[in-house]
Amino acid sequence: MAATAPRGMKIGAVSLWLLLLLSEKPMYGYEVIRELEKRFSGYWKPKTGTIYPAFEKLEEGGLVTSRIEFRDEGIDRKHYALTEKGRTELSQSMGHWTKMMEVLESYREVHESIFRYKDRLSRDELSKSLVALGAGVGRRSVDLSKVLPGQRKLLVQPTEPVTFKLLYAKEEDELEIHMELKWTPSPRARRPPKRSSRPKRSKRFG
């Protein structure tokens, strides 16, 4: 995982994760490493040679503060905590990183999507679309032309169970609701279409 930050950002990905963890509670170094391994489910195994230099840099910048816990048994522990300056920096950096991830997600959607839609609607139009979506899911078949007027006919057939995810969030001065429905298509739906057989050659007489 890169430790550097894209242009315009003051902190990189590693430092951002350290600030995120410390925003929950103060932690000591090894505790942070174990927590990161758990959060990333083994996809990233941070090393002390990466984490402690990052902590030193954050402390030099006044974003975190530290104290040493002297222990009678075992090695001493260095605990880190987020400063007020660190909280401000975390809030600003999260905005930068969120925007960057939105660009990446949009790029992925465009290149991998079967269908993609985005438009500005009135509340009445939105209400009708959501009602049509709910009715279609109840009937096990959603016609996107009924949900999104003016769009081409496209049937979507959710299978059970359907994973439903809803996120209500604040993005700068705007409020957003992100809704996600996810399911595994049935084997029949995943089966590739059969190739058309070659036309039989007619026999010639004469």
Structure description:
The chain is elongated, with a radius of gyration of 26 Å. The longest helix has 29 residues, at 84-112. Strands 1-3-2 form a 3-stranded antiparallel beta sheet. A two-stranded antiparallel sheet has the order 4-5. Strands 6-7 form a two-stranded antiparallel ribbon. The chain is an alpha+beta fold and 206 residues long. It contains 7 helices and 7 strands. It has 2 domains: 13-111, Winged helix-like DNA-binding domain superfamily/Winged helix DNA-binding domain (Arc Repressor Mutant, subunit A), CATH 1.10.10.10; 118-190, no CATH class.
Q: Can you give keywords for this protein?
A:
206 residues, Arc Repressor Mutant, subunit A, 2 domains, three-stranded antiparallel β-sheet, two-stranded antiparallel sheet, 7 helices, disordered C terminus
Short description:
This protein is of the alpha+beta class and 206 residues long. The chain contains 7 helices and 7 strands.
